[in-house]
Specification:
Elements lengths: L5 E9 L3 H14 L7 E8 L16 H15 L2 E5 L6 H5 L4 E4 L7 H14 L2 E5 L9 H8 L8 E5 L2 E2 L5 E2 L4 H6 L4 E5 L5 E2 L8 E2 L4 H10 L4 E7 L13 E2 L3 H16 L1
Parallel strand pairs: 1-2, 1-12, 2-3, 3-4, 4-5, 5-6, 6-9, 9-12, 12-13
Antiparallel strand pairs: 7-8, 10-11
Family: Belongs to the KdsA family.
Keywords: Cytoplasm, Transferase
Enzyme class: transferase
């Protein structure tokens, strides 16, 4: 049986306020109490959403203020943290605060980003999580791993499935990708909420099919995903980013418990 804990990255898409981060993290920890011995939990919040559809869309508090807020969450709750970085020169600063730094999907092939992220993670004993681009086959992620290995061991590298472009404004998930990405000796994570996006589907915003989150997440865990990345919100329809795909916060605990039961069934 698989004895490693299930990686769990959860929080809001973008940091909307310090109070919301505190409230959401506290709520998640309360919900996850029954299963905390089975998971490696990290709280997630983005300080900048650099690729919003519209110039007028909310992007976040920025690097300095965003990291200050995340530090306060860590101090209050003692949790691990994950956030994105968007330029190579941000990597060291971000890795000095959070435990896992993430390369967005559109930047996954940028060698300077990967090397800067890997070097920063080595310096600060952090993990590097890289989202597989919507344009990339799972087989090609082996090249990403090789780049990151210039500075990091494979146990510090994670790959993430977040869907593949299927025509215009649509994504599909290839469940075989988890086995393929894991074959490179790294953990493979399922991005449960971004996988159900409809990119640009609302014209000036990204749409999505929130009702498909559980279905695809269950399939991903059954297919061997080592963890789940999932964005939640107290009032998803009012979220300042990814409103169409954020999971209602009050449903998170039950869904994770269900996914862990599936994981147990397929790993025994």
């Amino acid at each position: 049986m698989e004895n490693k804990k299930f990686d769990l990255f959860m929080g809001t898409c973008v940091i909307e306020s310090e109070q919301m981060c505190m409230d959401v993290c506290g709520s998640l920890l309360e919900m996850l109490k029954p299963v905390m011995d089975q998971v490696n939990f990290s709280y997630k919040g983005s300080f900048d959403k650099a690729n919003r559809s519209s110039i007028s869309s909310f992007r976040g508090p920025g690097l300095e203020k965003g990291l200050q807020i995340l530090e306060k969450v860590k101090k209050e709750y003692g949790v691990q943290l994950i956030t994105d970085f968007h330029t190579a020169d941000q990597a060291d600063t971000v890795a000095s605060v959070v435990d896992t730094i993430q390369i967005p999907a559109f930047l996954c092939r940028q060698t300077d980003m990967i090397l800067a992220g890997a070097q920063a993670c080595k310096k600060h004993d952090a993990q590097l999580k890289i989202k597989k681009g919507q344009f990339l086959s799972p087989e090609e992620t082996g090249n990403i791993v090789t780049k990151a290995e210039e500075f990091l061991s494979k146990d510090k590298i994670l790959l993430t499935e977040r869907g593949t472009s299927f025509g215009y404004n649509n994504l599909v998930v290839d469940m075989a990708s988890f086995q393929i990405m894991k074959s490179f000796g790294v953990r493979a994570i399922h991005d449960a909420t971004h996988c159900v996006q409809r990119p640009g589907g609302l014209g000036t915003a990204t749409g999505g099919k929130r009702e498909q989150i559980l279905t695809l997440a269950q399939a991903a865990v059954a297919a061997g995903a080592d963890g789940i990345f999932m964005e939640v919100h107290p009032n998803p329809n009012e979220a300042k980013s990814d409103a169409a795909t954020s999971l209602p916060l009050d449903k998170a605990g039950a869904i994770i418990e269900r996914l862990l039961k599936i994981r147990k069934a397929v790993t025994e």
